[in-house]
Design brief:
The protein has about 240 residues and is an alpha/beta fold. The chain has one domain: Rossmann fold, CATH 3.40.50.720. The protein has seven helices and seven strands. The protein has a seven-stranded parallel sheet, with helices on both faces. Helix 1 packs parallel to helix 2, helix 3 packs parallel to helix 4 and helix 4 packs parallel to helix 6. The longest helix is centred in the middle third of the chain and has 26 residues. It is globular, with a radius of gyration of 17 Å. The N and C termini lie far apart (about 35 Å). The structure holds NADPH dihydro-nicotinamide-adenine-dinucleotide phosphate.
């Protein structure tokens, strides 16, 4: 790919949950398209490895160990990202977990709280901390949502409620930030073969007839959303699913 074909040259992107799975794939794809990428997650060796891959491929990246539930750590993440790369143009709110796999009555409250804490409070922490930097030149916020957050799913109440909240946060942010030329859209990947669902009896892979993806299959849409014009779509949900689940 020559420099002209790279759609994200000159942009700095922060991607949460970039140590593995979908976040890692998006980090690699953005870097290949010319962005400077900040990889954030809790496991230092995972993000170090992604940064090494990007640098080996000739790209620019920085690993910043961050727990998105810790507002202080998230504040530092964006301060360091802006200091290092001069701006924050793209934020992918991707870090997510699914620890709640029971009916509400049988659920483990701690798992419920933890799921909402990472998927929704963590997303708020990121948006809250990123906005002051993104307002300077406008940009793109992409939230990684789920069809479960639109439709609900029994036995997944925390995940469903956290992703429903994330979708509403996406819409509200889009309304609040359009005057700063910041677009905010949701990307719904549908089932993707990652570690998130490894321990599940009720796997996302059990959706009949649905396209089960590899993380790399999500990157064309993530690139599309990051490279739309200033007056491009905002407050929208883009899904890679084939069925109305
Ligand atoms: P993975 O489990 O493969 O990766 C999750 C990433 O998030 C890891 O890098 C993990 O790193 C990070 N993470 C988890 N908790 C935190 C935290 N508190 N702070 C910072 N980083 C954290 O998951 P996926 O790639 O499958 O999921 C990515 C997103 O896609 C999630 O939001 C998920 O809900 C969504 N999604 C996934 C689908 C799928 O089928 N896989 C379907 C629909 C949506 P670490 O543990 O080191 O912090």
């Amino acid at each position: 790919m020559n420099a002209k074909e790279k759609s994200l040259v000159g942009k700095a992107a922060v991607i949460t949950g970039a140590g593995r799975g979908i976040g890692r794939a998006i980090a690699l794809a953005y870097a290949q398209n010319g962005a400077s990428v900040v990889c954030a997650a809790r496991t230092q060796k995972d993000i170090d490895e992604v940064v090494r891959e990007i640098q080996t491929d000739g790209g620019t990246a920085l690993a910043i160990q961050t727990d998105v539930t810790d507002l202080n750590a998230v504040t530092q993440l964006f301060r360091k990202a802006a200091e290092h790369f001069g701006s924050v143009d793209i934020l992918v709110i991707n870090a997510g977990i699914n620890k709640d796999r029971n009916l509400v009555e049988e659920s483990e409250p701690q798992n419920w709280f933890e799921t909402v804490n990472v998927n929704l409070i963590g997303a708020y922490n990121c948006a809250y901390s990123a906005i002051p930097y993104m307002k300077q030149r406008g940009g793109k916020i992409i939230t990684i949502g789920s069809g479960v957050g639109h439709k609900g799913r029994q036995g997944s109440s925390a995940y469903a409620c956290s992703k429903a909240g994330l979708w509403m946060l996406t819409r509200v942010l889009a309304q609040e930030l359009s005057k700063f030329k910041i677009s905010v859209n949701e990307l719904i990947p549908g089932p993707v073969n990652t570690t998130m669902d490894n321990d599940s009896k009720d796997s996302v892979f059990k959706i009949d007839g649905e396209w089960v993806k590899e993380p790399e299959d999500v990157t064309p849409l993530a690139l599309f959303l990051a490279s739309q014009p200033e007056i491009g779509p905002t407050a929208q949900s883009f899904s890679l699913m084939r069925r109305d689940n």
